[in-house]
Amino acid sequence: MLEYNEILPKKVILMDGEPYEVLDAHVFRKQMRKPVNQTKLRHLITGKVTEQAFHQSEKAEEADLSLKPVKYLYSNKGEYWFCSEKNPADRFALSQETVGDAGRFLKPNAVVEALVFDEPDNDDEGKIIAVRVPIKVELLVKEAPPAVRGNTAQGGSKQVVLETGAAINAPLFINEGDVVRINTETGEYVERVDKK
Asked: Which residues pair with 51 in a beta bridge?
């Protein structure tokens, strides 16, 4: 159990049997009253963000989460297919909502971490509620329009298409066949990777 002042960002707590990630927490006192922890929580299954105040006498249960390595196979009609890292026959599909925006940077056979929520009253294997893609991934540029001389008034960037089909903005010097590093949280170009 977490005390009211231990409910901090990045912690995952249970409220009404559902997992919530703490996005923001601020402990303060209103005049002569007891301290309050004003939090912003994101429901890990639906993605809905809510605000919740925890008073000094309140506690929250920490959610039982575990990470499991899974291998990405392919996507089809809004579903992302994965398999167990050790057993390719153990296949399962996750929805676009579960995988999130980082799914556009998943390469076939990439191993990622699945966040598994073990429900307190359920003895079954836990439910996968999210997929954690590495913050930075390296992807091949499949399509890059040629740079147009003198076209740097907008900061000198162009849209390129990566091997996963995702389109991102990259500097003018990026060409087809280059390998670039992408930040999966922001979806932005980071740097060009030297080819070995």
From this structure: 40
Q: What is the CATH number of the domain that holds 82?
A: 2.40.50.140
Whether the full predicted model's pTM is greater than 0.70, yes or no, is: no
Instruction: List the domain range (segments joined by +) for residue 49.
Output: 2-62
SS3 11: coil
Best CA proximity match to 188, nearest among 151, 157, 153: 157
> For 31-58, what is each residue's pLDDT tens digit?
777 888 899 998 877 778 899 988 888 8
Tokens for 17? 């049997």
Range with the poorest average pLDDT among 28-42, 81-95, 139-153 = 139-153
Bridge partners (DSSP) listed for residue 195: none
How is residue 106 written in tokens?
């998943």
